[in-house]
Every structure is written in structure tokens, then in C-alpha cells.
Design a protein that fits this description.
Layout (H helix, E strand, L loop, with lengths): L1 E6 L2 H13 L4 E6 L5 E3 L2 E3 L1 H11 L16 H8 L11 H15 L4 H12 L4 E4 L6 E8 L2 E6 H7 L6 E7 L10 H7 L2 E4 L8 H5 L4 H5 L4 E4 L2 E2 L2 E2 L4 H7 L6 H8 L6 E4 L12 E4 L7 H22 L12 E2 L5 E3 L12
Parallel strand pairs: 1-2, 1-9, 2-5, 9-10, 10-13, 13-14, 14-15
Antiparallel strand pairs: 3-4, 6-7, 6-8, 8-16, 11-12
Helix pairs in contact: 1-2, 1-12, 2-5, 4-5
Length: 348
């Protein structure tokens, strides 16, 4: 079985660990968000790619969900002693090594997809990890604070400000020129199922969908999403601040409508959100909190089972999609973040 998953950072990585347990014999391709990428101290940092790589490769700090296990921070302390900014973004000593290797390879002319493949050769994550694009894109946030109306890098808004300053706009700088990385569209075309994990729908999944051709390719596939919103609140992180910035409510219903029936065929929601409905989408309610590896695997298995049912329904002689409204109880060169809806998927 060939599975494609789009993923952001912590939530996506933990779901992918469950997906590997649920489908140990599957060929899994992960398209990683690179809109969060940033250059710090002259080094190119790819937070979401690294979180997936470390989590699936056994090197993640499990308590915080990002960074390396058994980390030290001598270099960070020395940089602070020199007064080097920024001091609000803490890279550990082990993590620095990854960014040094990545930057050296990028400076030597290797594309990010080749660099990511080389880094994964050490970690053996069990999936093929591909950045959404080899072209540089960065998410910037337009805010209005004591310094006036200005744009800041997503990481400054997210890490230093903790999203406490309301975002007026969320922009993916470079989106107009960015193309899918090699292998992205082919993996989607060959996939038996596409799974959207409970990653941030605006600055993770939504960012990937802004790269030309990716959303269009996905609309021809069986796509099952796992809601990142449970009972009106994000499972983790500050997705509510991102949704508010684009005028979307923080509910499982609103996120499903944001993705749209043209993209999503199946939608897993938490049991407390069992009333969610959208024409053309099969909605099922399940426990969605990933307490541990077992619960993550159970959620992934439910997503795969739903994808299999939808695939079988689509292949019926009548050409039906098997979807419906029922709910089963069992700056320049930039693009605005936002997915838009779409028409209902038809038989293909």
C-alpha cells in the first residue's frame, strides 16, 4: 500500500509514528512543511522536517516534542554572552550539527530535497520525507503592535510572542514562484490513500496546499483528514490564533469547511464533535487524543480504514464516491494563507 501524508511538526510527527505502527508494510511518503524555515546564525533551520526526522528516527526530546534528546546548550549560552541575536530561539548543541550539515550542502548547490534525503540516511525514519518545495518560502505574519504595523517571521510571532499579538495577515512569501519538490506530485499520483494528520490547518497543511499543483493533485485522490480541533480547542499549539487571523472559527466543522469537499473525502472528529457534517464528506467520530503510541496508532488505523471504505465505494460499478452527510458514531511574491473550499468530489 502506498500512503502519502502531509505533515507539520509535533502533532504530525506523532501521528506519523502511529501511522507506521498501523501500516508497518506500507510505503509512506511524507510531504513536509517548509514555510516555518528560518535562517539563524547563518544556518538554515527546517523545524518541521527535523521534528519529523527526529521523532521517527528516535532522537526527539519526547517531553517537549521538538529538538534533540539529551541536549546541551553551550553554543547558545556562548552566543548570548557575545550578545548575538536572536536569543529567543534556542538551538541545542546536537541540533546545531544538523543545521551546519544542511547549510553546507545547500551552499554547495544541493537542493533541499537531496539534503533532506541525506540527513534521513542517518536517522532511518521509516518514511520517505520530502520537503514541499526546493524553492525557499517563508511564512510571515503581519501584526500591529507598539512598533506599528509590520511583518515578522512566523517563528518570531510563534516562539517569541507566543502568538499573543493578533495576526492581521499570514503570508507565505515566495509562494507564487515555488514549485513542488521532485517526487511530490509523483508520490501523490501513485498513492492509494492520502492522510492529513492533525497538524495546524493554516501554517502547516495550509502552507503545503499553497504550493502550485499540490492541492489539484490531491483532489483526484482519496483524502482522509484528522481534525486538529477537539471540542472547540486545538489539540496542541496555538492553531486558534492562526484560524482567527484568516477569519475561521476554531471548530472541527470550520476546519473541514476550510479544507472543502473538493479536497477531503473523509473526516475524523472527536466524539464530542460528532455533529459535524459537510455534503460529500464521510464524517466519523473517534477518540482523537494521542496519549501514547498506542492511541496514535489507533487513530491512524481508523483513518486508513475509512480511506479503504471510501476507495471501495468509489470503485463500485455505479461510480459512487461513498461520501455523504451521515456521521458514524462507531510582502511581494507572497500568497495569503488560506485554503478555500471547493465543489464536492465526483466519481473519477
Amino acid at each position: 500500500m502506498r500512503i502519502v501524508s502531509l505533515a507539520g511538526g509535533i502533532g504530525g510527527a506523532r501521528f506519523l509514528r502511529g501511522l507506521l505502527a498501523a501500516a508497518p508494510d506500507a510505503e509512506i511518503t511524507v510531504i513536509g512543511n517548509t514555510g516555518d524555515d528560518i535562517t539563524l546564525y547563518g544556518l538554515r533551520v527546517c523545524p518541521d522536517l527535523d521534528t519529523v526526522m527526529y521523532t521517527l528516527g528516535g532522537g526527539i526530546d519526547e517531553e517537549q516534542g521538538w529538538g534533540r534528546r539529551d541536549e546541551s546548550h553551550v553554543v547558545k549560552e556562548e552566543l548570548a554572552a557575545y550578545g548575538v541575536e536572536p536569543q529567543w530561539f534556542g538551538l541545542g548543541d546536537r541540533d546545531f550539527a544538523t543545521h551546519i550539515v544542511r547549510t553546507q550542502m545547500l551552499d554547495a548547490g544541493y537542493p533541499l530535497s537531496a539534503v533532506t534525503e541525506a540527513l534521513c540516511a542517518r536517522w532511518n525514519p521509516g518514511v520517505r520525507l520530502i520537503p514541499m518545495s526546493d524553492d525557499r518560502t517563508e511564512t510571515h505574519i503581519v501584526i500591529n503592535d507598539g512598533q506599528g504595523r509590520r511583518a515578522v517571521h512566523f517563528q518570531e510571532w510563534w516562539v517569541r510572542m507566543r502568538a499573543s499579538v493578533p495576526a492581521e495577515r499570514i503570508l507565505l512569501v515566495g509562494a507564487d514562484e515555488a514549485k513542488p519538490a521532485p517526487g511530490v506530485l509523483q508520490a501523490i499520483e501513485e498513492a492509494d490513500a492520502v492522510i492529513l494528520p492533525p497538524s495546524n490547518p493554516v501554517v502547516s497543511i495550509g502552507t503545503i496546499l499553497q504550493i502550485k499543483g499540490i492541492r489539484e493533485a490531491l483532489e483526484g485522490k482519496i483524502v482522509v483528514g484528522v481534525s486538529p480541533i477537539v471540542g472547540g480547542a486545538p489539540v496542541r499549539g496555538m492553531a486558534d490564533a492562526c484560524l482567527t487571523a484568516i477569519g475561521v472559527e476554531t471548530t472541527a466543522q470550520a476546519v473541514l469547511e476550510l479544507y472543502g469537499a473538493a479536497l477531503v473525502d473523509g473526516w475524523l472528529v472527536a466524539e464530542e464533535d460528532a455533529g459535524v457534517r459537510l455534503d460529500g464528506v464521510r464524517v466519523e467520530a473517534r477518540p482523537l487524543i494521542m496519549h501514547d503510541a498506542g492511541s496514535a496508532a489507533a487513530i491512524a488505523r481508523a483513518a486508513l480504514d475509512l480511506a479503504a471504505e471510501l476507495s471501495a465505494a468509489r470503485s463500485r460499478p455505479d461510480g459512487g464516491t461513498g461520501t455523504g452527510t451521515g456521521n458514524s458514531g462507531d510582502t511581494d511574491g507572497s500568497g495569503d494563507a488560506g485554503l478555500g473550499g471547493g465543489t464536492e468530489k465526483g466519481a473519477r
